Amino acid sequence: MDTLRAMALFVKVAETGSFKQAAMEMNHSNSLISKDIGKLEELVGARLLQRSTRKIQLTEIGRGYLAHCQNILSSHQDAQDYVQDMQGRPKGRLKINAPMTLGITALGPAFAAFTALHPEVELDVDLNDDPVDLIAQGFDLGFRASSVGVDSNYIGKPITTFSLHLVATPSYLEAHATLHSADQLSQHNCYIYSLAMGKNQWPVNGGMTVSGNIIANNTIFLKEALLQGFGIGLLPSFVCAEEIQSGQFVELLKDEPLPTLSFYVLYPSRHYTPPKLVKFIEFMQSWFNDEQSRV
């Protein structure tokens, strides 16, 4: 039995909760995975998974063994990365977590350009707006855009900053009272981003409570709704810059200072940072520096 392969298959089943999903992601058959994990259980002398027709659960021993397997596989990957580093070529897979909207609007072209430059690096990208434990879910790195600080459990590298903009369509402004001050926001239909830290407490004039008849967890959705001309929204530049430039959106209260969103990459602290991760972070910093210089 290939013990490292069996450990990797066990970790994948534990992460996905499914033999079928693990088989698809690892490009192995269900029977091979079941056979290898069975042999792994024989090797350690304990049951690692409780199997049923509906779901798979880790046993108590399995939960502890999972953490050891993840550490062993990470160390094994570090050893391989060290050799690649000494040979001067980044290679292997990077498992990346990023917010959905950022992934759709800003990251795709950058990721494609990186893989064109380093074709032996595979980017496995998960777009998800939910809070993610990068270490527990096996991610090599994650991207975040926030007005608050970096999670102290990770190493954070700044990439760039994004501005926030208060916007509405010309048709909305023609049909409603002119907005001269932040205090008047309470008189308007404000579309709210539900995942923002303040939610309906917008960071305008020290904090203004707003209300509206649309609340959503995706800013692209809110942008499309706002383009219909029935509300006001607070959107980041990577979502609305083109619409402001084209005149589809009018920027409101431009003299009111708004906080910026810091865009940074997070990755777990490790004894050895693999070259593929170093190269990727350096590339992303350079890419967004070039983007800023073209604005």
TrEMBL record:
Q: Name one GO molecular function term.
A: DNA-binding transcription factor activity
The record's listing under InterPro entries reads: LysR-type_TF_proteobact-type, LysR_HTH_N, LysR_subst-bd, WH-like_DNA-bd_sf, WH_DNA-bd_sf
User: Does the keyword field hold Isomerase?
Assistant: no
What protein family does this chain belong to?
Belongs to the LysR transcriptional regulatory family.
| Annotated keywords | DNA-binding, Transcription, Transcription regulation
Every copy of the HTH lysR-type domain together lies at 1-59
Q: Name one Pfam family in it.
A: HTH_1
Q: What processes does the entry annotate via GO biological process terms? A: DNA-templated transcription
The record, for SUPFAM superfamilies, names: Periplasmic binding protein-like II (SSF53850), Winged helix' DNA-binding domain (SSF46785)
Tell me what this protein is called.
LysR family transcriptional regulator
